[in-house]
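## retry 2 of 3
previous attempt timed out at serialization; input unchanged, resubmitting
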Amino acid sequence: MRIILLGPPGSGKGTQAQLLVQRYGIVQLSTGEMLRAAVAAGTPVGLKAKEIMAGGGLVPDEVVVGIISDRIDQADAKNGFILDGFPRTVPQAEALDDLLRHKHLKLDAVIELRVNESALLSRVETRVAQMRERGEEVRVDDTPEVLTKRLASYRSQTEPLIHYYSERRKLSTIDGMMAIDEVTRAIHRQLLALGAVEPRSHARSAAKAAPARTGAKKAKVAKKTAKKPAKAAKKAAKSAKSAKKAVKSAKKATKKATKRTVKKTVKKAVKKGSKKSPKKVTKKRAKR
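## retry succeeded, writing output
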């Protein structure tokens, strides 16, 4: 997966990039970090960048593209990457397209996080006011004045990229004013729709993203399942007890009924015998 996140300062690109890195096992490529790493490693492109920076100049696009080219050839970038801070202009985007084409790679998606600039400024003003109330030091680049300049720079230099990638059907726009987790879900849905990730991979990563919840649910089901045999055994024991009681009652009733029948039969026989005896005696006496 190879994607670019676009959006003005404060839109949450850094936060979402980190969440994507964790979820899909890809790397976040920051041009600033790549430049410093190339200089430290002493690569040919790094040495060229070092010479330019030492003279107080801006590193040209071709040097930055060279550093990106070296970086995406490294093993950890094979699964994919998110470009952070590049491209910033249309010429940089064109240079990146040429680089990827040369390496037989394709850009999967460009995600634009659209935000309300007035709301961003309001957030910064509130944060700064709260920091000053607590007696904390405010960063020089974290003030409404600096943000206003950065937003103006974004509009003039980077915003044209929205049209550039929209024409190439690479652009997806997401409401960056939503809660962080809602923005994350929206990005994943878009990546799925574009085919940048496999549905199975998404299901696995979603399960990984919420292990505690899944574990709790499994434990609840297990507990419920464990209760069922115990409940059934209890019910069976109760039924067996009832059956035993019923048999005992039936036995008792049968015994009582038999005893009553025998008694009645004996009584009847005795009565019949006593009636026959006087008749016989009377008959014998008559003969005499």
